[in-house]
Amino acid sequence: MKQPEQSYTAIETAHGFVFFTDTTEGQKNRQDFLQFMADHYFDPHFNLGPVNVYRAEGVLKDGSYVNPGEGLYPEYAYLQMDKTPEMELVYRNEMKPTWEDFGSFCHNMHCTSSHRNRNIADILEEIESKDRKLLELSKQGTASDIRQQIEETGQDKALLDKLLKQYYDVRGHRTVGNILRDPMECVTVDGVRLFTPHRQVLAAGHGLFLPGEAKSNPSHAYAWINGDFTRIVFSKDPPANKQVFKVKTVIEKALNKKQDVKKKRNTHPKL
């Protein structure tokens, strides 16, 4: 019979792998790690997904990535490695900011849900329900009663969205104000890195030209805040009636390099 230290759980995140043996210590630290992820699931800077959970057998070499139990999850010494054939995938979650992914993670990883996260998940579920109803109504013609139902459902959805953004700061559902005031040096919006200088340009009411995006993702070459200050708009064309600025290339390169170094800081040789 396999001893506890000869079987383990490997958890792969966007940062790399951590390992937890089936010992008492390993099981406790594993559950603490998973619960910490559940508690911070909707945080604006939660960036561990997608998450893969594997079961495997074998004796692990000692390392800071085995049974980690101190510090916050971004500070763990994640190991960069290729998956091995001995690893059996038992669970996968994209960890998107949706009520489905959150509920699946908590259920399958045996985590509890905080009161705050339950409220967020309930609101997200209701917003999705309104979206489905709007889609169904749009297929039923243009009769006056259908138009009225569409208007009322749209108003309900808007109220739910306002409630979510007024009381919570949820990744994927953030207000423009929260994005602009974010103390983090880099905030990612719709896949685009917006550093502090970028957000200063937007906050001043100007348009922003992103040369890096113009080359790799032309549909996001320009950015600006829409008229009612509800979202950041990206487009391949410059905004009308706005002065367009570009952060100096040398500054932008330095900021991107600094961000990439942060991502690579906790890398280790492959096993």
TrEMBL record:
InterPro entries listed in its UniProt record: DUF6047
Pfam family, one: DUF6047
Protein's UniProt name: DUF6047 family protein
Species per Swiss-Prot/TrEMBL record: Bacteroides ovatus
